[in-house]
Amino acid sequence: MGAGKTAAAVAYGNLALVIRDLDPKEWRPDDRGWLIAQANVHQAVLERAMHAGPVVPARLCTAFANRGQLDELVKYNQERWGKSLQRLTGKQEWSLHIYAGPHVALHHEPYVMRVATASSDNAAIEGPYATHLCALEEACRHLAADSRRIEPQTNARYVFGAVLLMREKRVEDLRTTLMSYAKIARALGITYYLEGPHPPFNFC
């Protein structure tokens, strides 16, 4: 789905795929400005669609040479996608970002490009905030239907991040939990940011 183009829902049995036609001359995945524009549209369309029901986001810039290729993909994945939609019904993706010191969350890129999960959640949390972060992570995991750590960022002040697949009815519990840890966080000199809701980009 690209900027300036109309996306349409196409029915495949009891599923609907949101797609658009693309002129091959427009395809410029090595152009970062073009890629950001596509990501903004991709994210906006999915965020509108999630208000109508569960969504299973495709990878950014998934493209097919013709409708026949798309039909083949649907044929082999329709059952799996249906199960994914059932699993994701009533759930949203939220992300928790934690920085050392006061910090203004400046998001220059779309969420779908900015947040990627780490290859493993098993690495020990180290450093001066380890005890607090371990307790906070455990509390959040207890509330979430699923959770994954975010790939470490190049920002040296970014000390921890996680994406949380939350049932809509538990989001307020998550906010309450973060508030209960906030006093200790202030004493430690760290800042929390909770971002969402988003489609389940990291849980499909």
Q: For the residues shown, what is the average pLDDT?
A: 90
Helix-and-strand structural type: alpha+beta
- Placed side by side, the strands forming the largest sheet appear as 4-5-3-6
CATH fold label of the largest domain: Alpha-Beta Plaits
Overall body shape: globular
Contiguous uncertain segments of 5+ residues: none
Write the element-wise H/E pattern from the N-terminal end onward: EEHHEHHEEHE
Task: Report the biggest beta sheet as strand number plus sense, adding barrel if it closes.
Answer: 4 strands, antiparallel
Percent of residues in helices comes to 25-40%
Count every helix, treating DSSP H or I runs of 4 or more residues as helices.
Answer: 5
Which percent band covers the strand fraction?
A: 15-25%
Radius of gyration, whole Å:
19 Å
Oligomer: single chain
By CATH's scheme, which homologous superfamily of the largest domain applies? Answer: ACT domain
| Number of domain units | 2
Overview of this protein structure:
α4 (130-143) packs antiparallel against α5. The mean pLDDT is 90. The protein is 37% helix and 21% strand. A hairpin with an 8-residue loop joins β4 (146-149) and β5 (158-167). The protein has helices at residues 32-49, 67-88, 111-114, 130-143, 171-188; strands at residues 8-12, 15-19, 91-100, 146-149, 158-167, 190-198. It has two domains: 8-88, no CATH class; 91-198, ACT domain (Alpha-Beta Plaits), CATH 3.30.70.260. The strands form two sheets. The protein has a four-stranded antiparallel beta sheet with strand order 4-5-3-6. The protein is α+β, with helices and mostly antiparallel strands.
